Amino acid sequence: MTKSALKQLLHGDRLATAAGAHNPLTAALVEEAGFDVVWASGLEISASMGVPDANVLSVTECLSTAAAMAARVGIPVLADCDSGFGGITNVIHMVQDYEAAGIAGVCIEDKTFPKLNSFVAGPQQLVPIEDFAGKIAAAVASRRSADFVVVARIEAFIAGHGLEEALRRARAYELAGADALLVHSKLAVPDEVVAFCDHYTGDVPVVAVPTTYASTTMDELHAAGVSLAIYANQGLRSAIASTRETFAAILRHGCASAVESRLVPLSDVFGLQGTARMLEAEKRFEQVG
Ligand code: SPV
Ligand code: MG
Q1: Which residue, by CA, sits nearest to atom 10 of ligand 1?
Q2: Is the reported ipTM for this assembly greater than 0.90?
Q3: CA 41 to ligand 2 centroid distance, Å
Q4: Contact 17, 37 (CB under 8 A)
Q5: Is the pLDDT assigned to residue 287 strictly greater than 90?
Q6: Cβ neighbours of residue 234 under 8 Å, at least 6 residues apart?
Q7: Taking 90 as the threshold, does the pLDDT of residue 289 lie above it?
Q8: How many whole angstroms separate alpha carbon 31 and alpha carbon 76?
Q9: In the chain, at which end, N or C, are there fewer CB atoms within 10 A of the end residue's CB?
Q10: Which residue CA neighbors atom 9 of ligand 1 most closely?
Q11: Peptide bond just before 190 cis, omega within 30 deg
């Protein structure tokens, strides 16, 4: 798949799906499972480094992780770039670097820098509409190819504003050239996202992250008008649950045999690492000389 695949997926007839990843291995699992897109999740990447999702990691760390994922998978990688790692100049360099690294697109959100994960309790700070529209325009103007996707993420609902504010921001970001609008919500029901889709009259595809409204189905999201659903952190959370159980069981039983039946065999790990491919290449090229 090429980079333009992400744009095609956003404009396709069916709901496109993405899942969160934090390294090339988890990106490979996203691809293997059959998702269309890897979401290089800021939450997952920062959690995997044991730090808060609050711009503690630098743009260089986030970029190198997303680039390593893009190098490993054949499906597009959409990189979560928080609020753009600073101001307009940061956004310009960010877009150039992410595009050069083979990443299919970036998503930036209309929060202040440093950002705070949307689900952390407490106030969330938005930047003025014009400021963020400027960042979107800068991102769009800085890409080399129109295939590189710029997603504008609206945090109005997360920050406690209503539909009018979300729609006002949607119009401004669309006008600034956004390729898609991610409308985020932390409700346990999809009502904000559905209301947004019902009242949004623009032309840009809508992206949703059904983390808290987890029982909303893909069919329901598609019927509401969502083009891309991002399952942003379920992989990480299942890994934490499973690793915890495994480690506790080893200590409880005093040996690892008790957990063996629920582990993947090492051959599975070797497969994900491309070991057979490596051995085959060594055999082929050793005989050249
Ligand atoms: C992420 O995966 O880092 C996201 C989605 O931005 S959320 O955590 O829901 O904010
Ligand atoms: Mg994030």
Answers
A1: 118
A2: yes
A3: 6
A4: yes
A5: no
A6: 19, 20
A7: no
A8: 10
A9: C
A10: 118
A11: no
d(CA 12, CA 20) in angstroms, rounded, equals 21
Position 74 scores a pLDDT of 98
Stated pTM of the model: 0.97
Q: Which of 230, 224, 225, 222 is nearest to 15 (CA)?
A: 222
Q: Is the pLDDT of residue 3 over 60?
A: no
Which atom of ligand 1 approaches the CA of 232 most closely?
A: 2
Instruction: List, chain by chain if needed, residues with CB within 6 Å of any ligand 1 atom.
Output: 20, 41-43, 53, 80, 117-119, 209, 211, 232-233
Q: In three state form, how does the secondary structure of the chain look?
A: CCCHHHHHHHCCCCCEEEEEECCHHHHHHHHHHCCCEEEECHHHHHHHCCCCCCCCCCHHHHHHHHHHHHHHCCCCEEEECCCCCCCHHHHHHHHHHHHHCCCCEEEEECECCCCCCCCCCCCCCECCHHHHHHHHHHHHHHCCCCCCEEEEEECCCCCCCCHHHHHHHHHHHHHCCCCEEEECCCCCCCHHHHHHHHHCCCCCCEEECCCCCCCCCHHHHHHHCEEEEEECCHHHHHHHHHHHHHHHHHHHHCCCHHHHCCCCCHHHHHHHHCHHHHHHHHHHHHCCC
**pLDDT tens readout for residues 144-171:** 999 999 999 999 999 999 999 999 999 9
Mean pLDDT of all residues in 47-56: 98
pLDDT in tens, 208-263: 999 999 999 999 999 999 999 999 999 999 999 999 999 999 999 999 999 999 99
Q: How many residues does the chain have?
A: 289
Q: How far is CA 129 from the centre of its chain?
A: 23
